[in-house]
Amino acid sequence: MKIALGCDHGALALKNNLIPHLEKQGHEVKDFGTYTLDSCDYPEFAAAAAQAVANGECDKGIVLCTTGIGVSITANKIPGIRCALLSDVMSARMTREHNDTNVMAIGAGVVGQMLAFEIVDTWLGTEFSGEARHQRRIDKMMALEK
After folding, report:
1. Predicted pLDDT at 50
2. pLDDT surpassing 90 at residue 24
3. 48 FRET partner, CA 20 to 30 A, in 9, 59, 102, 136?
4. 109 phi and psi, to 5 degrees?
5. Is 134 tagged catalytic?
């Protein structure tokens, strides 16, 4: 799977540790930055990663900042994106099964690295259930973009 990653300076360490974790599992990673600890504006990096998912360049996306809030809001502004801000494993599983999310957000200052890896692994390893009731709800949600 090809994964788009984007972060700000507050989540650079988590992103840099997440890359080899994902590659070790056989995923291809496209890193949209940031690449330094210099203060930066998270919308640039979150939007680039989300756009790569929306246009099909990447299969899924992971966006990171200190809280995860700003990057999740940003990603959800990109048409076609369903981004969930995650801080626990159950939500990671449920948002894939029920909402077919294609981008996830994590707050590096909220979730430690080991839990972040577990959340990411669960999210990437869970398929959409395909149940009609969930698809109906997703269709209604996505129709709001129009």
Report:
1. 98
2. yes
3. 136
4. -85, -5
5. no
Between CA 90 and CA 17 the distance in angstroms is 23
Contacts of 46 (CB under 8 A, 6+ apart): 6, 63, 65, 70, 71, 72, 74, 75, 105
Beta-bridge partners for 6: 63
What tokens appear for 54 in the block? 């929306």
CATH of the domain at 106: 3.40.1400.10
The catalytic residue among 7, 40, 58, 65 is: 65
3 state SS of 64: strand
From 52, 41, 66, 58, select the one nearest 116 (Cα to Cα): 66
Per DSSP, 101 falls in state -
Range of the structural domain that residue 84 is part of: 2-143
Domain count, the chain: 1
Question: Per-residue pLDDT tens for 1-12?
Answer: 999 999 999 999
Element housing 2 (H / E)? strand 2-7
Distance CA 105, CA 93 (A): 14
Please give the model's pTM, rounded to 2 decimal places.
0.97
